[in-house]
Amino acid sequence: MTSTAPAAALFDPERPWRRARSVALRPEPFGALVYHFGTRKLSFLKSQLLVEVVTALADHPTATATLVACGVPEAQRPAYVRALADLARSQMLECRTEEPA
Amino acid sequence: MTAVLPSPRPTGGRLIDQFEYGLDAPICLTWELTYACNLACVHCLSSSGRRDPRELSTAEAEAVIDELQRMQVFYVNVGGGEPTVRPDFWHLLDYAVGHDVGVKFSTNGVKLDRARAQQLARTDYVDVQISLDGATAEVNDRVRGAGSFATATRALENLAEAGMRDFKVSVVVTRENAGQLDEFKELTDRYGAQLRITRLRPSGRGADVWDQLHPTMAQQRDLYSWLLANGEQVLTGDSFFHLSAFGEALPGLNLCGAGRVVCLIDPVGDVYACPFAIHEQFLAGNVRSPGGFQQVWQHSELFADLRSPQTGGACTKCAHFDACRGGCMAAKFFTGLPLDGPDPECVQGYGEAALAARDAATVTPKSHLDHSHTGPVRGQPTLLGMPSIPAGPPAAPPTRPCNESPLAGMA
């Protein structure tokens, strides 16, 4: 709710992202469970498409490119960016820029 | 065709509705490692005391952990009995953590000396919660036994001194400690720990003291206000969702997770719908049977039944049904109430009415298991030896047992 504003500020969809290394995805009928072994936080991906996006982040140059590649309809992209921003805020995603190119 | 199949899971919608249909693996699994316990708490939900000779061996426990890893159960809540009295407890802890199964264990602190506290502080993915049912020794020891407050606070000191972070103090809210919530918070803060409070269930020996110990309606209202004010800093294990019918939803998941997102593996490997439901009616299977735990979780008839949508029942007509969802299944069951009716502690008052309307001949269900100590236990709780406490203002602190006449209460 109120917390999405700073999250959006932290999350730049034009940068390369991936699922954090200490995070596991568990497939579920509604999407997936996301668990961070470091923070012990649990989160939920509420659609199969979002699971595909999170999984595919590492294969694309930016988050935006991932959304396009996964076929997320344009009208839904802002909602997906917000969902990814929430995940980034809880350290479920990490930016790939820290590693050597 | 559709009549014999479970109703199909809807796509999208609220997460809570999805959870009602169950998950491929539990989110929150409680695993009680032993029925053995050094204490004899009057409200023990598993009637623990004596070890069961059929308890899982080390190899069998390791096999369960392997299976949990395959199913991606990311953490388990380990309890008992007192889990740390199992000689292989520390080995199983390391084994679980080494297999990506985080452990949160509940203990009365009996084995948490300085060396163990330091060991825990060095281990990732381990969470400790120390049980305490009074913010003072007087209130705590009456329920948990003489000396148990000192044992618990010594363990808390050891953990704090070892630099352990995020450990918990776990409190069952009773009529006697409901007025101590702020004191519990202060005590917890003093050790740099986090407070976790849960609901007293009429399960195990809890059934024997429930009438005497469950919070009054006034206390429930105070608890609700306190949780609204402090809920974000206090863990509840979602155990107070029945209070949501007071008005606002409380933080956390407001849903009975039995067989849907939670379950219990007991010390002999039996799988029950939830930790508060150790009764044959909620027994889904055993991890020793072919297919192991996964087979039980995914294919038992009982769990399939718990995952089908609720229909009918008095509660579904209530304006607050969406908030409390009929409350706690185990609380209803062990007080002899119908499962599709109100929770005995329904904050709209329907529970009291239902309890009063029970047939005089109603026999409340009893578990087929009782591992309670059969002889006297050192520091035995005094609650049951005391005159029953009248409802209303909290009882005065008890006199120390050693100040009491040996004939007190016998006249």
Describe the protein's topology.
The complex is a heterodimer of chains A (101) and B (411).
Chain A (H helix, E strand, L loop, with lengths): L3 H7 L6 E3 L3 E6 L2 E6 L4 E5 L2 H9 L6 H7 L7 H13 L3 E3 L6
Antiparallel strand pairs in A: 1-5, 2-3, 3-4
Helix pairs in contact in A: 1-4
Chain B lengths: L14 H6 L7 E5 L25 H13 L4 E5 L9 H10 L3 E6 L6 H9 L3 E6 L5 H8 L3 H14 L6 E6 L7 H10 L3 E6 L6 H8 L3 H14 L31 E4 L4 E3 L10 E4 L5 H8 L1 H6 L14 H4 L4 H6 L15 H7 L55
Parallel strand pairs in B: 1-2, 1-7, 2-3, 3-4, 4-5, 5-6
Antiparallel strand pairs in B: 7-8, 8-9
Short descriptors:
heterodimer; A: 101 residues; alpha+beta; Outer Surface Protein A, domain 3; three-stranded antiparallel β-sheet; 36% helix; globular; B: 411 residues; alpha/beta; nine-stranded mixed β-sheet; 14 helices; disordered N terminus; disordered C terminus
Description:
The complex is a heterodimer of chains A (101) and B (411). Chain A is an alpha+beta fold and 101 residues long. Chain A has one domain: Outer Surface Protein A, domain 3 (Alpha-Beta Complex). Chain A is 36% helix and 23% strand. Chain A has 4 helices and 5 strands. In chain A, the strands form 2 sheets. In chain A, strands 2-3-4 form a 3-stranded antiparallel β-sheet, with helices on one face. A two-stranded antiparallel ribbon of chain A has the order 1-5. In chain A, strand 2 and strand 3 (31-36) form a beta hairpin. In chain A, helix 1 packs across helix 4 (77-89). Chain A is globular and about 30 Å long. Mean pLDDT of chain A is 88; it is low at 1-8. By secondary structure, chain B is an alpha/beta fold. Chain B has helices at residues 15-20, 58-70, 89-98, 114-122, 137-144, 148-161, 181-190, 206-213, 217-230, 292-299, 301-306, 321-324, 329-334, 350-356, and strands spanning 28-32, 75-79, 102-107, 126-131, 168-173, 194-199, 262-265, 270-272, 283-286. In chain B, helix 4 packs across helix 6 (148-161). The longest helix of chain B has 14 residues, at 148-161. The model of chain B is unreliable at 1-5, 386-392 and 394-411 (pLDDT under 50). The chains are: A alpha+beta (101), B alpha/beta (411). The A-B interface holds A 24, 26-30, 33, 35, 37-38, 40, 42, 44, 46-47 and B 9, 11-12, 15, 18, 21, 23-25, 27, 72, 74-75, 100, 102, 124-125, 127.
